[in-house]
TrEMBL record:
This is Adenine DNA glycosylase. It catalyses: Hydrolyzes free adenine bases from 7,8-dihydro-8-oxoguanine:adenine mismatched double-stranded DNA, leaving an apurinic site. The gene is mutY. The keyword Magnesium applies. It comes from Gracilimonas sediminicola. Signal peptide: none annotated. GO terms for biological process: base-excision repair; mismatch repair.
Length: 362
């Protein structure tokens, strides 16, 4: 199958089988950009309601640039990888300030924006401006390693570069927007990681993995390193008037700009109750008594997992100071939903407001 046949079969299949998505067929480069940022490491079905809500809140790049970061993070709450939201907000300000609110059409120019790497630059410039820049994501890697019979480790830079070369060679220069979307769509709905539906594939006749029955071994990905697990103790300090203390995470830290209940990692040989009391002393400069475990929950991040133990605490002495955070604030329980929290803390806030369920501790 030559390159023209590959493109023809792929695009014909795409026209008949493409899924409906709120950003598909969109002409506004801003909305295309937002969708691509959201789709990084996020499934289409998960991103869809977030995209619709985000665009309703910030319909233009000017609205996004003028918004407070807390508003942006609140709209992103639960979607994860919050640096995407902070970078999106920062880039919107740059666009308004330096580009009159318009996304640059050039790959070399758009990739300068915060949060835009090679994949997003290729996706936005091809879909929004019909530039022949080939995208390579996990779906495209799977399609092309199977099609060309590439058995080397896809974690290696050499293999990724090889796949990028294949994609660049194959892209339909007359219709790069649909070609890129078709490649990703094919990998998502037909050329799936397990049990690919090869009989539905428009390019099956040229696929080496299909011909040699190697779709279960291609692509090859070397085993990932085992993720570390941390036990975390957090303290919920309740004042006499019932208000709770929350802290704003440092801007440059993981989950920066989000609120949390202060706490940290358990040390070896330390009881979790001691962890909570020590962490609050270090972070707030106060002495507290952790007197009851409210709940515990497990959460997995991209590079590690946690079991979080949340304890109710009473202030024994000292006035809380934001030693490890940007700001601290006393809030009513019913006000917690106004603030953007990381997902693990969000479960806790819902429990505190009487809305959520969780595994009880003691």
């Amino acid at each position: 199958m030559n390159n023209n046949d590959f493109s023809h079969h792929l695009l014909s299949w795409y026209q008949d089988h493409k899924r409906q998505m709120p950003w598909r067929g969109e002409a506004d480069p801003y909305k295309i950009w937002v969708s691509e940022i959201m789709l990084q490491q996020t499934r289409v079905d998960q991103a869809t309601p977030y995209f619709q809500n985000f665009i309703s809140l910030f319909p233009t790049v000017f609205d996004l640039a003028n918004a407070e970061q807390q508003e942006v993070l609140k709209a992103w709450e639960g979607l994860g990888y919050y640096s995407r939201a902070r970078n999106l907000h920062s880039a919107a300000k740059t666009l308004v300030q330096d580009y009159n609110g318009k996304l640059p059409e050039s790959y070399d120019e758009i990739i300068k924006l915060k949060g835009i790497g090679p994949y997003t630059a290729a996706a936005v410039t091809s879909i929004a401006f019909n530039k022949p820049n080939a995208v390579v994501d996990g779906n495209v890697i799977r399609v092309l390693t199977r099609y060309f019979g590439v058995e080397e480790d896809v974690r290696s830079t050499k293999t990724k570069n090889r796949v990028q070369d294949f994609a660049t060679e194959l892209i339909d220069e007359d219709n790069p927007a649909d070609f890129n979307q078709a490649m990703m769509e094919l990998g998502s709905v037909v050329c799936k990681p397990t049990n690919p539906e090869c009989y539905k594939c428009p390019i099956q006749s040229g696929c080496v993995a299909a011909k040699t029955a190697k779709t279960d071994t291609i692509p090859y990905k070397s085993p990932a390193k085992k993720k570390p697990h941390h036990t975390i103790g957090v303290g919920i300090i309740e004042a006499e008037d019932g208000k709770l203390l929350i802290a704003l995470r440092p801007e440059d830290a993981m989950l920066g700009g989000l609120w949390e209940f202060p706490g940290g990692k358990q040390k070896e040989g330390e009881e979790i109750q001691e962890t909570v009391e020590r962490e609050l002393a270090e972070e707030l400069g106060v002495e507290v008594k952790a007197y009851k475990e409210l709940m515990r929950l497990k959460h997995t991040y991209s590079h590690f997992s946690i079991t979080m133990h949340a304890w109710m605490c009473k202030l024994v002495s000292g006035k809380p100071q934001p030693k490890s955070s940007q700001e601290i604030r006393w809030v009513e329980r019913n006000e917690l939903e106004r603030y953007p929290f990381p997902k693990a803390n969000k479960v806790l806030t819902e429990r505190l407001m009487g809305k959520g369920q969780g595994e009880l501790g003691i």
